[in-house]
Amino acid sequence: MSKTSLWNDESGVILSAEIVLIGTILVLGMIVGLVELQCAIVAELSDISSAIGNLDQSYMVSGMASAKGNGRWKARTYGASYSDRADTCDCDLNLTLVCSDNGEVNK
Questions:
Q1: 29-38, long-range: CB within 8 Å, 24+ apart, which pairs?
Q2: Taking CA atoms, which of 8, 46, 75, 91 is between 20 and 30 Å from 28?
Q3: Paired strand residues for 100
Q4: Which residues of the chain have pLDDT under 70?
Q5: Residue burial 5-38, b: 16+ Cβ < 10 Å; e: rest
């Protein structure tokens, strides 16, 4: 087969309109896929932030004392406590999500 006959052969040719159509379908599919990926990431980050916000950081340490015997203390430590109150952002209802996932909205 010579170069000219190969150059003039039109079997298997892809027209530019077909390439534009295939490219458009691929781009639209990629946009939809990226939007779903964004919604999934936002939902997971919302779950993580809710878990961190719901951590209770309250603690209490009791004091200890050791007496010498005649009403005097050998050693004594005082206790401490901290009570964690709920902040404004500790609730899922304050979050505005891009997605309308019922699992996220109805928490």
A1: 38/98
A2: 46
A3: none
A4: 1, 12-13, 87-107
A5: eeeeeeeeeeeeeeeeeeeeeeeeeeeeeeeeee
The burial class, CB within 10 Å (0-12 / 13-18 / 19+), for 51 is: exposed
Find, among 51, 54, 61, the residue nearest to 87 by Cα.
54
This prediction's pTM? 0.51
Q: What angle do CA 100, 103, 105 make, to 5 degrees?
A: 55
59-81 confidence digits (pLDDT tens): 899 999 998 888 888 898 999 99
